[in-house]
């Protein structure tokens, strides 16, 4: 939550900051602000989107070469101009941008108020910049030292950048729990929540570790810990493709990302399948022996990643015969889960930054479990907190509603479960070959599925005003139903529920009337007849059925109001195809309802608060 970006160097900072903030808007878009340092320290901030801020900044002096910007997802204090970042110190001489939460801000604030500080906002962040200035002015320590001393008093999570009028050659950044990337250019430096605002200026970046402070001066960059121990930073070379950060002719990032799935699925298994007889995933291969004998796997994640985890449960049980528990990361960490060194935990996250998932990892680690990560964003916090892992290689996902990341996560889980199942003797060489050959056909089958787009748009026009939707599926179709319902809720604000088809009669059936569209995953593999019966039950109560069926289906076609055909595939690979029409249905409904598809209200793509 919240995106931060900062620049120091020979270029004008303003355009870099505004462009960077637009790239980071997926992290929050309640309000935005910038600070420019050029002899004076000027702060401009506004409730609303980055574009509103840019418009409000028309006519200001934009020649400063040092500056920082922030796009906010509100935690403390409502999203108005006053609570927008940057926040200034008591004298207005320093400013800060912050992503995270200062948990002990109330006690720090009380102490500062007693000392005569007055606050302009309701935020936790403003307290921190007041504290830094207070320490500097009352102890006589340097700017850098005052930041270090203040951070040692802070409880909570942060990625911050601070600038000061009396130290105009400085840019100081620090992180604990929230991400901060430093871009190292030729005589210029950048700081940002992720690499996307940096990549077009330099490909050299440093991912700060928790508890580290980066200090940039005219003499260059130094990285230290909060305890003042110097560190030698490792410079990574970015591999992000700039085109992936643009809409590429599509009206929305979400639509572009839906249509990218033939390629993103291919990219998730490319290079990992050898001769259709072996799966090479360095992370998983190194734990082969442990995995052969483990008692169970625990999968943790949030939102769409949790849905991928439910598919993972099916896959590991089916292919590797290992019992799996799938947990919401937030629930897992607040229970007292029974877990030990014999457990294998898989943490799934697109962003690699979700606070609850990170906390679940920490808890599982404490108890001695082996932790494996499935993440999309390279260099993010989760891959660095796990013992091993696999990147999904779906490329940057900008639309807040996750689409291609989900199918990439499922692909990674398919490879992992097949690899383990093959190694532990539950999948024969012949069966593995058959499955891998089928997996390789999936990108083409996704391409074919996407051809239903126009038809799905017509269906969206029919149902765009529905007030409720029900999504039903069985087996591996159940997580697909959950994911379809989540997509609709997220971007169109229509209430939707995903249910195991057979459970419908234990409650949701009471909701069904002629107004209720029911989307059913009714492909022709396992449970087909049972699902047909469920469809009959809905029809008997005058519900409207939109069914996802296998090409050539005649039975469901005869009963359902509308059918969307997908190519046939292995039951276990079904989510890779069946999810796609549901993504498109939500997309078109949301567009027709005039919703902001890429930036739905109240949501953020990277949830770095608990
Ligand atoms: C947010 C996003 C969802 C995402 C979830 C988990 O709620 O809006 O799209 O599924 O976080 O995020 P992660 O990055 O951990 O997959």
Structure description:
This protein is of the alpha/beta class. 37% of the residues lie in helices and 23% in strands. It is built from 20 helices and 27 strands. It has an eight-stranded antiparallel beta sheet, with helices on one face. Strand 21 (370-375), helix 13 (381-385) and strand 22 form a beta-alpha-beta unit. It is globular. The termini are close together. The relative contact order is 0.09. The structure holds 6-O-phosphono-alpha-D-glucopyranose (G6P). 6-O-phosphono-alpha-D-glucopyranose is lined by residues 302-305, 349-351, 354, 357, 400-402, 603, 605-607.
Q: Which ligands are bound?
A: 6-O-phosphono-alpha-D-glucopyranose
Helix content: 25-40%
What oligomeric state is this? single chain
Overall number of strands: 27
Q: Structural class of the helix and strand makeup?
A: alpha/beta
Low-confidence parts lasting 5 or more residues at pLDDT below 50?
Answer: none
**Can you tell me the overall shape?**
globular
The number of helical elements comes to 20
Distance between the termini: 10 Å
Taking Cα atoms only, what radius of gyration do you get, to the nearest Å?
25 Å
List the helices and strands and how they pair.
Layout: E1 3-8, H1 13-24, E2 31-38, E3 40-47, H2 50-56, E4 66-72, E5 87-88, E6 94-102, H3 105-114, H4 125-139, H5 143-151, E7 156-164, E8 171-176, E9 181-184, E10 189-192, E11 204-207, E12 212-217, E13 220-225, E14 230-231, E15 236-237, H6 253-259, H7 261-269, E16 273-274, E17 278-279, H8 282-285, H9 288-293, E18 297-301, H10 303-320, E19 324-328, H11 329-334, E20 344-349, H12 355-366, E21 370-375, H13 381-385, E22 388-391, H14 404-423, H15 429-450, H16 453-463, E23 468-473, H17 477-492, E24 495-500, E25 517-521, H18 528-540, E26 544-550, H19 555-559, E27 562-566, H20 574-592
Parallel strand pairs: 18-19, 18-20, 20-21, 21-22, 23-24, 23-25, 25-26, 26-27
Antiparallel strand pairs: 1-4, 1-10, 2-3, 2-4, 5-6, 6-7, 7-8, 8-12, 9-10, 9-11, 11-15, 12-13, 13-14, 16-17
Bound molecules: 6-O-phosphono-alpha-D-glucopyranose.
The site of 6-O-phosphono-alpha-D-glucopyranose has 16 residues, from helix 10.
């Amino acid at each position: 939550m919240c995106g931060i970006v900062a620049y120091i160097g020979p270029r004008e900072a303003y355009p870099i900051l505004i462009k960077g903030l637009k790239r980071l808007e997926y992290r929050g878009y309640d309000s935005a602000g910038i600070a420019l340092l050029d002899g004076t320290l000027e702060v401009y901030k506004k409730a609303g989107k980055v574009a509103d801020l840019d418009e409000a900044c028309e006519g200001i002096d934009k020649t400063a070469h040092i500056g920082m910007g922030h796009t906010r997802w509100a935690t403390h204090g409502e999203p108005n101009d006053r609570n927008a970042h940057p926040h200034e110190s008591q004298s207005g001489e320093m400013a800060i941008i912050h992503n995270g939460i200062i948990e002990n801000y109330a006690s720090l604030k009380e102490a500062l108020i007693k000392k005569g500080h007055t606050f302009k906002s309701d935020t936790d962040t403003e307290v921190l910049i007041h504290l830094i200035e207070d320490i500097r002015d009352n102890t006589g320590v340097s700017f850098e030292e005052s930041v270090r001393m203040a951070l040692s008093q802070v409880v909570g999570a942060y990625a911050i950048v601070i600038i000061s009028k009396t130290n105009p050659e400085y840019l100081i950044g620090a992180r604990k729990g929230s991400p901060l990337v430093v871009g190292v250019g030729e005589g210029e430096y950048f700081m940002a929540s992720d690499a996307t605002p940096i990549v077009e200026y330099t490909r050299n970046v440093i991912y700060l570790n928790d508890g580290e402070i980066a200090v940039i001066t005219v003499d260059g960059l130094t990285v230290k810990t909060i305890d003042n121990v110097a560190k030698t930073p490792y410079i990574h070379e970015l591999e992000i493709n700039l085109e992936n950060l643009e809409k590429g002719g599509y009206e929305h990032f979400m639509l572009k990302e839906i249509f990218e799935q033939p390629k993103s699925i291919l990219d998730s298994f490319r290079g990992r399948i050898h001769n259709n007889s072996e799966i090479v995933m360095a992370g998983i291969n190194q734990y082969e022996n442990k995995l052969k004998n483990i008692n169970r796997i625990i999968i943790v994640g949030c939102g769409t990643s949790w849905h991928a985890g439910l598919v993972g449960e099916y896959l590991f049980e089916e292919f590797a015969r290992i019992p799996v528990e799938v947990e919401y990361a937030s629930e897992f960490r607040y229970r007292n889960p029974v877990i030990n060194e014999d457990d294998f935990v898989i943490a799934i996250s697109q962003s690699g930054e979700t606070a609850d998932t990170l906390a679940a990892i920490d808890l599982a680690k404490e108890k001695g479990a082996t932790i494996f990560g499935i993440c999309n964003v390279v260099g993010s916090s989760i891959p660095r907190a796990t013992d091993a892992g696999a990147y999904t290689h779906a490329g940057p996902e900008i639309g807040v509603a996750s689409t291609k990341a989900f199918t990439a996560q499922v692909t990674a889980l398919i490879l992992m479960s097949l690899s383990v199942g093959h190694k532990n003797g539950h999948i024969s060489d012949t069966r593995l070959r058959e499955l891998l050959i089928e997996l390789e056909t999936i990108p083409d089958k996704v391409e074919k599925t996407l051809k239903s787009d126009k038809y799905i748009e017509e269906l969206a026009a029919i149902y765009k005003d529905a007030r409720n939707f029900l999504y039903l599926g069985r087996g591996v179709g159940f997580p697909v139903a959950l994911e379809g319902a989540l997509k609709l809720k997220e971007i169109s604000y229509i209430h939707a529920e995903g249910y195991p088809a057979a459970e419908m009669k234990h409650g949701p059936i009471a909701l069904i009337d002629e107004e209720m569209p029911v989307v059913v995953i009714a492909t022709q593999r396992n449970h087909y007849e049972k699902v047909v019966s469920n469809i009959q039950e809905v029809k008997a109560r005058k519900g409207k059925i939109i069914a996802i069926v296998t090409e050539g289906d005649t039975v469901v076609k005869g009963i359902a109001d509308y059918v969307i055909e997908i190519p046939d595939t292995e039951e276990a690979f079904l989510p890779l195809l069946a999810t796609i029409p549901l993504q498109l249905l939500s997309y078109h409904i949301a567009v027709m309802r005039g919703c902001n598809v890429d930036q739905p209200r109240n949501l953020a793509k990277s949830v770095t608060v608990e």
